[in-house]
Amino acid sequence: MKKSSGDIRRVTALRALLGDRLTLLVGMDDAIVEGIAAKAQGWIAGLVNAFPRESGALVEAARAGKHAKARALYDWFLPLLRLDPVPKFVR
């Protein structure tokens, strides 16, 4: 299930409601570190296509609990990720 509400607390609420019956994915570019912390399993984002290595490194650092590495990557990447921070797509 792609979670794009912008409210990362919904990942936790959905996990409590559904358990492991569905795989939860973060669907907002600028919410990946928070989503991984809430136990989302993956990420669907636009900039992943433009920066696949950096995106993969960010997700892996967040999953591994490498907070300093994740923070450094996130600080670099966040201005780009926030170019499209709303769940409503540009038409």
What this model shows, in words?
The protein is mainly alpha-helical and 91 residues long. It has one domain. It is built from 5 helices and 3 strands; from the N terminus they run βαβαβααα. It has helices spanning 9-18, 32-37, 47-50, 52-64, 67-81, and strands at residues 2-3, 25-26, 42-43. The protein has a 3-stranded parallel beta sheet with strand order 1-2-3. Strand 1 (2-3), helix 1 and strand 2 form a beta-alpha-beta unit. Helix 4 packs across helix 5. The longest helix has 15 residues, at 67-81. It starts with a strand and ends in a 10-residue tail after the last helix. The model has no long low-confidence stretch (mean pLDDT 87).
Short description:
The chain has 91 residues and is mainly alpha-helical. It contains five helices and three strands. The two termini are 23 Å apart.
| Annotation, overall tally of beta strands | 3
- Helix and strand element order: EHEHEHHH
Query: What do the pLDDT scores average to?
Result: 87
What class would the helix/strand composition place it in? mainly alpha
Number of helices, counting only DSSP H or I runs of 4 residues or more:
5
Largest sheet: 3 strands, parallel
Principal-axes shape call: globular
Supply the number of structural domains.
1
User: Low-confidence runs (pLDDT<50, min 5 residues)?
Assistant: none
Q: Helical amount among residues, as a percent range?
A: 40-55%
SS strand fraction: 5-15%
CA-atom Rg in angstroms? 13 Å
Strands across the major sheet, in which order? 1-2-3
**C-alpha end-to-end distance:** 23 Å
